Amino acid sequence: MTETPRSSPSPYLSPAEVEAVARAAHDGQTDKAGRPYAEHLAAVADGVRTRGGDTEQIAAAWLHDAVEDGRLAPEWLEGAALTERTKDIVRAVTKRAGEPPEAYAARILATPGALLVKAADLAHNADPARLAVLDGPTRTRLTEKYARMRALLGLSADRP
After folding, report:
1. Whole-number pLDDT of residue 157
2. What is the pLDDT of residues 17-50, one digit of tens each?
3. Which ranges of 9-131 would DSSP assign to H, the alpha helix?
4. Which of 67, 89, 139, 159 has the fewest Cβ atoms within 10 Å of its own Cβ atom?
5. Minimal CA–CA distance to 116: which of 46, 68, 65, 69?
6. Which residue stretches of the chain have pLDDT < 50?
7. How many angstroms separate the CA atoms of 59 and 16, rounded?
């Protein structure tokens, strides 16, 4: 009997490795409510998963704020063992300094797979329980900001 050759290991980071990179990159960072930032990343990755996202979108969810927050350099992303699609999604959801919201939304809409990641991000950011712990002016400002982005992306308030 001939043994079937094993396929070579993937050249890409595993989902667990992507999660570990993201958690390490955001180590010590907190959100606006003072919670560990990794909780937000996990919630967005879970939101992508429950919305039917694939492994590339889940990887992008874990990394969605890493470049924007300066936790990982753009050069890291370029050389990372990630699929080109995952990199494209991370690039699409990474806000650029001085960029109008309309341009940001257009880039997300033009990038396959990015809308699902951004929808999960917005859903967690706009979670009423998460916003409730913020001061009134911050809560109002963020609620308006997230609603505007949802509108630019064509996401209705009742569709997460």
Report:
1. 66
2. 999 999 999 999 999 889 999 999 999 999 999 9
3. 15-25, 37-50, 55-63, 74-79, 84-93, 101-110, 114-125, 128-131
4. 159
5. 46
6. 1-7, 160
7. 9
The overall pTM is greater than 0.85: yes
Q: What is the dihedral of CA 81, 54, 50, 157, to 10 degrees?
A: 100
62 three-class SS:
helix
Q: Report the alpha-carbon distance of residue 131 to residue 142 in Å, rounded.
A: 8
| Residue 137 structure tokens | 């002016």
Contact 122, 143 (CB under 8 A): no
Determine the pLDDT at residue 49: 98
Number of residues in the chain:
160
Integer angstrom CA distances of residue 3 from 6, 9, 97, 121 = 9, 18, 55, 46
Instruction: State residue 3's pLDDT score.
Output: 47
Contact 123, 160 (CB under 8 A): yes
